């Protein structure tokens, strides 16, 4: 079984790429012992003092902070599609790039509202939805709009 050895930084995050890979049959504990006794001794003085983590090369090597929540990504894509369609319907003419988003501002009378926003500055351009008392109501409305896409 192949084991990937990753350096662990002082902030607790591990390196993106393995420092070395070695072959050892056995459990993670046995591989750690083998690494400490047989492989780490060949490192230079500086590297022997570092912290390392071993991962089975046969499993995913993706770091926790790199994992994507696919449901959240898909929901954001659908939300962007809804906002794009609402922007198209509103037929907004401006010299700036226009995006959409949920805001709570003076322009919305201090209520939550999905709006057309100026790119780069997020300045209010036009309302795209009714006003809501809280963001969860606004998200429910958006979810209903997403359901109508299908």
β content, as a range?
15-25%
Mean of pLDDT = 91
Largest sheet: 3 strands, antiparallel
Along the chain, the helix and strand elements come as EEHHEHEEEH
Helix count equals 4
Going across the biggest sheet, name each strand in turn.
2-1-3
Distance between the termini: 47 Å
Record field, number of beta strands: 6
Helix/sheet category = alpha+beta
What would your notes on this structure say?
There is one protein chain. 35% of the residues lie in helices and 25% in strands. By secondary structure, it is of the alpha+beta class. It folds into 2 domains: 2-66, no CATH class; 70-149, no CATH class.
Q: What key attributes describe this structure?
A:
single chain, 150 residues, alpha+beta, 2 domains, 3-stranded antiparallel β-sheet, 4 helices, 35% helix, elongated
What are the SSEs and their pairings?
Layout: E1 2-8, E2 20-23, H1 28-39, H2 45-48, E3 51-56, H3 70-90, E4 98-105, E5 111-118, E6 124-127, H4 135-149
Antiparallel strand pairs: 1-2, 1-3, 4-5, 5-6
Helix pairs in contact: 3-4
């Amino acid at each position: 079984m192949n084991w990937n050895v990753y350096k662990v930084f002082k902030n607790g995050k591990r390196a993106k790429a393995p420092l070395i890979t070695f072959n050892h049959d056995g459990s993670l504990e046995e591989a750690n012992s083998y690494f400490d006794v047989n492989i780490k001794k060949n490192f230079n003085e500086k590297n022997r003092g570092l912290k390392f983590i071993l991962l089975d090369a046969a499993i995913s090597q993706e770091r926790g902070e790199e994992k994507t929540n696919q449901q959240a990504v898909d929901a954001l894509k659908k939300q962007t599609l809804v906002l794009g369609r609402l922007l198209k319907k509103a037929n907004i003419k401006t010299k700036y790039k226009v995006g959409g988003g949920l805001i709570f501002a003076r322009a919305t009378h201090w209520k939550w509202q999905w709006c057309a926003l100026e790119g780069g500055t997020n300045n209010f351009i036009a309302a795209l939805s009714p006003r809501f008392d809280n963001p969860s109501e606004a998200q429910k409305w958006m979810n209903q709009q997403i359901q109508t896409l299908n």
